Amino acid sequence: MYLGERLAERAREGRPVRILVIGCGKFATMFLAQARGTAGLEIAAVVDLDPGRARANLRAAGWPEEELARLPRLADAEAALELPDLEVVVEATGDPLAGTRHALAAIARGLHVVMVNVEADVLCGPAIARRARAAGVVYGLAYGDQPALVCELVDWARSCGFPVVAAGKGTKYLPAYHASTPDTVWQHYGITAEHAAASGMNPKMFNSFLDGTKSAIEMAAIANATGLSVPRDGLAFPPAGTGDLATVLRPRAEGGCLEAAGMVEVVSCLHRDGRPVADDLRWGVYVVIEAPGDYTARCFRDYGMVTDPSGRYTSLWRPYHLIGLELGISVARAALYREATGSAAAWRGDVAACAKRDLAAGEVLDGEGGYRVWGKLVPAARAAREGLLPIGLAHGVRLRRAVAAGELLTFADIEEPPAGEAAALRAELEPEGDG
Fold first, then answer.
1. 3-144+324-337, what's its fold?
2. Is the dihedral of CA 388, 392, 397, 399 positive or negative?
3. pTM, whole model, 2 decimals?
């Protein structure tokens, strides 16, 4: 039976999948716009630190007043987890510390967790996933977001018997963007601050998309879920259009840009001089595969696949991702099939805080998308060996020494290491880093 039919059956039986949504920003609002019209899904509650903002977002998403009236007005996630007949929790706060806390609390209550909060997943996802498996519940990435979609492509390739050479996404990238701040972000996107505010776009969050942090976080999540490797010294962001993927994203020994086969990478829709790349993949995801033999390579050619010059490498891509509009897939698969749409299996990639500018002793870091640091993708083994400070713990901590622009921060650079569940889980992972 297809997923949609299973949901419709739950609706007919009068037992829809009851969902708690924690955090009502843009991603969650997109999901909520679709969920109210999806047979078999029921929103039990929406929790946000600002319940008024949540209700305004729900109205903007098309929720009528009578449906808003039945939702409890909640700002406390812990209390909301006690609501009756919950099955799935969608964690969409974007705060890695809060996200970890909420996921652990949900798992302890026997609830499935769909982790929109990739920041939390990269900080300590493998440890959270272990706890979910022990509890017999699902913990996984959010379909519609690029990591889950890339995991799906990787799974497709492996299920077909293709070696995966590279996988990742497209973005808009220039080296200068690493220094971008919330004050400069909208000019890079080509929109006004007024337009962004009217669309509910958070400048700090969108700056993390631009300055390279979000790309690093998403690639780390993919590596941890699929077992693909990460570059030794961060993403290269090579310019590449869809027709060039198989040529650019192959090992250096074959004429490409990869250190080796089997890696994550992000391609840019801009050449380094700012010119647009033809047939870019800015909003999409991809996988590059290799023919395991001459016969398969001939099949690539026979069926019109776009290959590298050797004919051995080809790619499959999806040009768009619909973000929260597609999240129902994760919710339904967790509740109905007890399957995750991608889940952290091992600690292979990490995202270290890197100074955006010269930082002085005594400055307080402001985390992802802020004014002081951006997140750089590194192998987990390197992060553990060098004691690198993860971007997820680089908020509200004070520097004990000056750090030069472009330098990776370490735990030794901060006065007081963060405490709490997320920091404890992160420490649990460090012996596992295998690069």
1. Rossmann fold (3.40.50)
2. positive
3. 0.96
